[in-house]
Amino acid sequence: MDIDDPTLRIAPAEGADRDALADLLVETVAGNGSVGFMHPLGLGEARAFWDDALEAVVRGERIVLCAWRDGELLATGSLALVSAPSQPHRAELTKVMTTTAARGSGIGAQLVRALEQAARERGRRLITLDVSLVEGATAFYRRLGYSVAGDIPEYAHKPLGGLGATRVLWKLLDAREPVATAVVDPAVDERFMRHALSLAERAENEDDEIPVGAVLVSPAGEVIGEGWNRNITEHDPTAHAEIMAMRQGGKRLGNHRLVGCTLYVTLEPCAMCAMALVHARVARLVYGAGDSKTGACGSVSDLVSDPRHNHRVQVQGGVLGEESGRRLTNYFRSKRGKPPL
Predict the structure, then answer these.
(1) Distances (CA, A) of 220 to 180, 185, 261, 277
(2) Catalytic: which of 116, 204, 242, 268?
(3) What is the mean pLDDT of residues 32-41?
(4) Tens digits of per-residue pLDDT, 214-237?
(5) pLDDT, tens digit, 9 for 90 and up, residues 65-115
(6) Residues comprising the binding site for Zn(2+)?
(7) Mean pLDDT of all residues in the chain?
(8) Which of 167, 225, 290, 292 could tie 249 with a disulfide, CB 3.0–4.6 Å?
(9) Residue 176: pLDDT above 50?
(10) How far is CA 246 from the centre of its chain?
């Protein structure tokens, strides 16, 4: 949750902070965090890195902020101030790290906003960054208004081994911020997602289709469309759960636009369904399991929030994601004669 915390103190890093910063860097690398180092990272090497970084701060080449509570370092992040004559307006966001105990508390979001403000104060209006393709990082930055530029395969070794891809993101600080939307009760999202899961079960049990279900909900909270995968049954390559639900909703409303509606679907939409959401002007997408192979709402690509489109869809992923993913996994395991998980 991105809620301002009055007990949190965000301040520029000082020389006396070096040891705490080094401890956080070592912890991050040991947890397989992609921050440029391999595990095991020695404390001496971590201290040397921060010595160099803090010297760059003195030279005006870098900004380093720290988030503290009761004398404990909870998070840090840096901005590399690009010095190329052709890019005086750009800064690069690096080394954003949060302690394990502080993750999910909104501290990371406050820190990034503070870094953005520091960038503005130094005349920087374009922020770029790259993140490892792990679940959570892209969604975090998208909530803060960042857009996906693309992915680079085999970009760097993960700290614990193995080559990993990276995703490049960007944000224009003077761009118009997304219109704020009403806070949604998580219990409401879960209720409609359970409805979508029941439809996914019908796809499997009634049609022997891949178990994906979708529910379209009006701005008033009324279900106006339901669907599940029927592309094999109907010999229709477009008959994905999302399309079926939107077709039903459009007929119910008598309109090809689904303005203000929310679509709940158990699996992250593919490119076809993602663009259907954009064209239909769906306001919000809530999905369960991410799709690392064809997901077009943040996993493989990010079509629903591309700033080049004249409509962008608010996205919330991971709602009952474990349950949704397990159903899909067990469906394919059963096809291979394997026991369910």
Answers:
(1) 18, 14, 9, 19
(2) 242
(3) 94
(4) 999 999 999 999 999 999 999 999
(5) 999 999 999 999 999 999 899 999 999 999 999 999 888 888 999 999 999
(6) 240, 270, 273
(7) 91
(8) 225
(9) no
(10) 24
Residue with tokens 């954009």: 278
On the question of pLDDT at 181 being above 80, the answer is: no
Instruction: For 142-155, write each residue's pLDDT tens digit.
Output: 878 888 898 999 99
Q: Is 242 a catalytic residue?
A: yes
Q: pTM score, two decimals?
A: 0.59
Q: What pairing do the DSSP bridges indicate for beta strands 163-172 and 223-228?
A: unpaired
